[in-house]
Amino acid sequence: MVDTLLIHYKINIMSTKTKLPSWFNGQCYTHGSEVTNRYSGESYKLTAEELSMYDFIVGAELVLSMGLNNEKMIKDMRKGLDWFRTHNAEAYMVLLD
Fold this sequence. Notes:
The chain has four helices and two strands. The chain is mainly α. It has a domain at 32-97. A two-stranded antiparallel sheet has the order 1-2. Mean pLDDT is 86; it is low at 4-9 and 11-16.
């Protein structure tokens, strides 16, 4: 019974539209998808908004790893990580921590 309630709770949380912040200037997807952590192999199903933010964060990490340091990009990537942590802590732990 408790497991069933938890599953329904997670489904309701995932199906609620989460608005992306006004500073976000990345691609806004219309559909979510399952994402796999490139290091651990663990997967998590993301909403369209979460996937948009996830790709933004991973893209910023890639650009920064190439040595193209940009203070605004670093700041926005950190804001993206904070947004993700707040809106879906479980997915954050699986995919970005």
